[in-house]
Amino acid sequence: MSKESILVIEDEEKIARLLELELEYEGYKVTKAMDGIKGLEEYRSSKWDLILLDVMLPGLSGIEILRRIRMSDSHTPILLLTAKDSVEDKVSGLDLGANDYITKPFQIEELLARVRAALRHKAVEQKKETDWLALADLKLNEKTHEVIRGEDDIELTPREFDLLAYLLKNKLQVLNRDQILEAVWGYDFFGDTNVVDVYIRYLRKKIDTLENEPLIHTIRGVGYVLKVTK
Predict the structure, then answer these.
(1) Would you state the pLDDT for residue 2?
(2) What single-letter DSSP state applies at residue 182?
(3) With contact defined as beta carbons under 8 Å apart, do 139 and 128 qualify?
(4) Which of 9, 17, 81, 224 has a Cα-to-Cα distance from 118 of 20 to 30 A?
(5) Would you state the pLDDT for residue 129?
(6) Domain-by-domain residue ranges, the chain?
(7) Sequence-ordered list of residues with C-beta below 8 angstroms from that of 72, at least 6 positions apart, any chain
(8) What's the CA gap between 23 and 118, in Å, rounded?
């Protein structure tokens, strides 16, 4: 079983060392960074299961690091280490996407409990995400039969749903009509392959509306592909 990796960005040596020892004792893999610039470099150099981030750092503040991380990464849990009276930092951090904050001085048992809670929440969210097939702002959930484009819920017939699910499972691949017919309608379908074109047209009316970027593309003489072109 692989260890969960934690990045500790903390400039106080004693606190950083305490965190390293306690977290490693709990079975986590720990990397330390002692200033903001080094911390951001470490973050970009690898994938992390969780980040413990001090707010007051030399080089680059914890709030600025949080802001930069959240520009492209909304998934990695980030727990802020804040001073006792820094209400503004706590509010700013939570507004920028921090998952939680821990006030210094802290009890190590509380910190470890917060770390476990954040990692559990991440695992639950990741499990939820695996139920969805997605491309750009289009999402389909095979368990709940939900289809969402942007902020809009889309109602599909069972056959339209199966067709879109097949396209999403094979996104970026050009699929010919026979492949689609066999996968969606089955081996024993004796109708014309034109039924594929008809249902693609139905899907386009619901998925690729005027205000949305087209995702279903025709490859002349071959078939169809689901992809982003811009």
Answers:
(1) 57
(2) I
(3) no
(4) 17
(5) 64
(6) 5-129, 132-226
(7) none
(8) 14
> Is 32:20 a contact under the CB 8 Å cutoff?
yes
Residue whose entry in the numeric block shows the structure tokens 């470490």: 42
Integer Cα distance of 149 and 164 in angstroms: 12
Q: Which two tokens stand for residue 222?
A: 């071959």
Say which range, 77-81, 123-127, 159-163, has the weakest mean pLDDT.
123-127
Q: Which two tokens stand for residue 162?
A: 């199966």
pLDDT given for residue 3 in this prediction? 87
Sort 57 into a burial class: Cβ within 10 Å, 0-12 / 13-18 / 19+.
buried
DSSP percent split of the chain into helix, strand, coil, nearest 5:
45, 20, 35
pLDDT value of position 163: 97
Q: How many CB atoms lie within 10 A of CB 198?
A: 10
Q: Please write the tens of the pLDDT for every residue from 63-108.
A: 999 999 998 888 899 999 998 777 787 888 889 899 999 999 999 9
Higher pLDDT, 211 or 15: 15
For residue 218, give the nearest of 207, 205, 204 by alpha carbon: 204
Place of tokens 């699929």: 175
149 touches 216 (CB < 8 A): no
CATH node for 132-226 = 1.10.10.10
Among the four given CATH numbers 3.40.140.10, 2.40.160.10, 3.40.50.2300, 3.40.50.9100, the one describing domain 5-129: 3.40.50.2300
Is 224 in a helix, a strand, or coil? strand
